[in-house]
Amino acid sequence: MSLRKQPIVRLMDRSTYGHEILLAHPKDTLGVMADAGLLVDLDRYIVETALHLARTQQTRVFVIVTAELLATQHLPFAPDDDLTGLVLEITERSRLDIEAVASYLAPYREHGLQIALDDFGNGFNGLPRWTTLRPDFVKVRLSSGMEFFLPLIMDAAAQLEAELVVERVETHEQDMWLKKLGRDVRTGVLLRATGPDGGRRSMRSVGFAGFAKSFLAWNLAGVVPHCVIYADPRSPYRVWNRRMLVVERWADVKRMHPEPEWVCIDHEEAEVTPDIVIYGVTPDLARIETALGAKQQSLRPILFVLIGYEEAGVPWLFPPAFQPTIVVPWDMRQATSPLVGEPLTRRDPVWRAKFEQLWEAIQHVAGI
Q1: SS3 (DSSP) at 189
Q2: What is the pLDDT of residues 240-271, one digit of tens each?
Q3: Residue 184, Cβ neighbours under 10 Å: how many?
Q4: Cα separation of 63 and 61, whole Å?
Q5: Of 97, 95, 75, 96, nearest to 86 (Cα)?
Q6: Structure confidence by residue, pLDDT tens digits, 72-103
Q7: Exposure string (b/e) for 312-350, b if CB count within 10 Å is 16 or more?
Q8: Which of 19, 44, 150, 360 would bridge with 5, disulfide CB 3.0–4.6 Å?
Q9: Which of 63, 19, 26, 275 lies closest to 172, judged by CA?
Q10: HEC string for 26-50
Q11: Strand, coil or helix: what is 12?
Q12: Is the pLDDT of residue 195 over 60?
């Protein structure tokens, strides 16, 4: 196990505001420690380390505090200690008597301790906790659909004198959109940087939408090195697949060691937000207009794949704005029987060349 620092930066100028302490550990380590009754001791050590860093490096340090540690009311310092720079994050995962927690933390807050509400809008971290705890920071994840609610959250943060920490801001478009919102609402907006020590994230993800999602995900995974597929258990991989690594739980993806460089996400789940979206479209004007509308509203880059269109000798009758990255044929025989065992991109050089072209476009968009 090891502790890692992840920068938190100011939105407007990217200057460092503080750091978040994260625990990196092998799979099942926390479960083993919980069974041994050592989890609270580990939590105390991590919180104590965070306070030491805040004092010695004269910086603000964010650290998650578990429900178990709060329930025991056994923080590793006295209420009258100087706690300047330490920010305890209340997670969304566990039920808490939040009024009792607020009362317990009150004397610590008088001596510099600050509180953050982690992953607001998920789990137990909703409005009742915000209004009762009155945190100094509210953390939100820029997931699908959040663009509709984030202006309201920013306005509430300004009214309640809390600063907002936005996670998973990974494109230039998202950054510019947030900057405009920050100027309009005039609240403090911070970002959690996208990788340990400010570096690029080690794992990136591609999502799929529109037509033939599983077909596209499987064939793309066939050309992307160090890639796994995260799939809904109801998807057809159990029928098709014999060679590709398919994982049905996101927690299992995160526990993989070494961590995969890329994940093809074939699973609609609010908790998992892809970096880039591949949108499958059939040669139908109405579907193409829908796809263009989705791209205009999305905070993430979208690349189109046109499926079932014969390129040779057929006039291009689609809107000029619709520029698919690749065009592939389609029939049910290609989607089923030829795919048994491994994707077409592992067996057919023509298909491999097309999806390698798509992979190059993904890397270009991702800035690799």
Answers
A1: strand
A2: 777 788 888 888 887 776 678 889 998 877 66
A3: 11
A4: 7
A5: 75
A6: 888 888 888 999 999 999 887 777 888 999 99
A7: eeeeeebeeebebbbebebeeebbeeebeebbbbbeeee
A8: 19
A9: 275
A10: CCCHHHHHHHCCCHHHHHHHHHHHH
A11: coil
A12: no
SS3 of residue 104 by DSSP: helix
Res. 196: pLDDT tops 60:
no
* Bond into 274 cis (ω within 30): no
Cα separation of 85 and 60, whole Å?
4
Q: What are the chain's domains?
A: 2-197 (3.20.20.450), 204-366 (3.40.50.300)
pLDDT tens digits, 320-344: 899 999 999 876 556 555 456 788 8
* pLDDT tens digits for range 101-130: 999 999 999 999 999 988 887 778 888 889
Neighbours of 167 (CB within 10 A): 21
Burial class of residue 48, CB neighbours in 10 A (0-12, 13-18, 19+): middle
Check the CA dihedral 149-155-158-159 and report its sign. Answer: negative
Q: Which tokens hold the place of 242?
A: 């014999």
CA distance 123 to 289: 35
Percentage above 90 pLDDT, the chain: 26
Structure tokens given for 37: 């009754």
